[in-house]
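Collaborator request log, item 7. Partner lab (contact: R.S.) asked for a structural prediction of Beta-galactosidase to inform their binding assays.
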Amino acid sequence: MLQRTIFFLFLLGGVLVSLVAKADDNPRTFILLDKGWGYRPVSDTGLKSSMKQVTVPHTWNANYIPGTRSYNREMMVYRRDLEITPDMKDKRLFLYFEGVNSSATVLVNNKSVGSHKGGYTAFCMEVTDYAKQGTNKLEVWVTNAYNPEILPISGDFNIYGGIHRPCHLLVTEQDCISPLFYASPGVFIHQDKVSEKQAQITVETMLSLRGKKQGLKVRTTIEDAKGNIISQNIEQNVTIENVKQPFVIEHPVLWNAKQNPHLYKVIVELLDNGKVIDRVEQRTGLRYFSVDADKGFFLNGKYLDLYGFCLHEEVEGKGSALSAEDHERDMELVKESGATSLRLVHYPHSESIYHLSDENGIVLWTEIPMVGPGGYDFCGFINTDGLKEHARQVLKELVYQKYNHPSICFWGIFNEIRTNYDNAEPFARELHELYKEIDPSRLTTLASCDDPKFYQNCSDLMAWNKYIGWYGSRNAPETAGNFFDKAKAASNGKPVAISEYGGGANVEHHFSMKENDVKPSGQFHPEEGQTYIHEGNWSAFAQRPYMWAKYIWVFADFQSAIRNEGGKPGINDKGLVTYDRKIKKDAFYFYKANWSTEPMIYITSRRFTKRPEASVQVKVYSNLRENTLYVNGKKIGKQKSDSLNRVMWQNVTLSKGENRIRVEGKSKAGVIEDTCVWYLK
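Returned to partner:
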């Protein structure tokens, strides 16, 4: 099953579901179970103990407390009423959870319905035989405690406990399109062959039939972006639970990343004697792609330079319990930077970010949570049956749930699994083969931090996490370039990429740097040191189109309880945006100047407001042809941007007190400028 390219849109994604979502002609109903929840520790067993009222999504680890590095990894019980109304009589009832971290047991009226391991994939349970008409008690027992059989077993990020993604009650007729197959939508769109001339497609629908199994029909309709019907296929007299329907689209409009992220709509309806008894709508992007070891990534036959961020799913004050608006804000920042790709680390993300990537043409690498400790102790893989079975389960859930998003081009096998514990190579190869068995259309990859000789036979593509300029060598351009030239030579024709690079920055820390002599584990992480590292690395990577992707670590600062550095215990500050998303660091604008076509000028070190010396450097990131500097209204000079879209004026003299710095340049739209104020003691 599912042996071809598939794209789908799962309507249970948070951005697409309202409180009660039901079309007039569709008896399928989604009820968002966001309010009315309470929770308390399972250790609090008093019959009269009160529960703290919360709204889902929720995590009990949301708030970062400055100066601390610990967080609770324990078991909590969530509880709410579940109302089954008279109009649900003789219907089927399903509970659909988009993510509960990191394992959950669901009970209805004190009876166990089932359990699920893993906090980053959805699960669906039928509760038809457990719920009664009227008010029911719904409980979810949740734990994020360490468990050697639940991924991840290590990692440089926090595991946020709770029902941290939306959950729903799904109501259907007795015969329906199945939501139970790995919590997938039950509709899969196989792209058998796609080109500019023609797209050959098979739509596969999985049914769950509990009523009559005769006289049913499956009607599938494909519409273009304007709602025009492109094609329709009706399968008559359906008696089996797996239906495949072929389609041909002549001269399709291809999903072409940011240039034209075109999406079709696929509507699948189950009919009984002409009446629609279930309906699922999905969007589809048609595309083909490849990677060349010497030339890089190609989408629809044309080269596309993939560069962007690694993205963790968390925000200050919320942890991983994000809203649709949080995801939309992050996507707007990604778009502002000019990025073409994201690596979703280190686990399957919320459905919202996949939808947004589809809509905005962002190419994705997404991965399972098999994560090593990086430079810390212990390991991310132990060779036990329990852990391996969980890895297989999460992989299947990831692929089937996200299978049809056109933005996804790469499936990730692991991140930084070192070779000093159990040998992970045989199992990594097994996971690669499992990915290819389910979905041969996409490419597998992995993120290594070991010597290039390891893991060469475990994936289609290779990538490395290399923090050159931050850990180890300070000569980023030469060292980074040499490493990847050697890695390419050692990879025997397998394409290579950089999966993580960067350095830390606290926006309150600054210095007038001559070179980067910051200690990564120290408490001083000046913003200028981060830009130095990124400028050096990018100067090497931009000259190597054979690198199939370049991913910055990381989009935004995030919590990591094992860290104590940069003046903020418990925070990894390598983000190009602050944890609260309020400040875009200088390095963000370096990439905007190099990636975005939007005319821009940005004065760096703008937060270094109190200057100890009169003679300063004024450095600007600008994608304009020429830039003019003024200090206190006096013209200092005009310069052209260099190959990295930088402009640097040396030995600029400040006056005592306030100094107004202004840089301007001309674009096609007119004059643009940037200003800041520095003070000389």
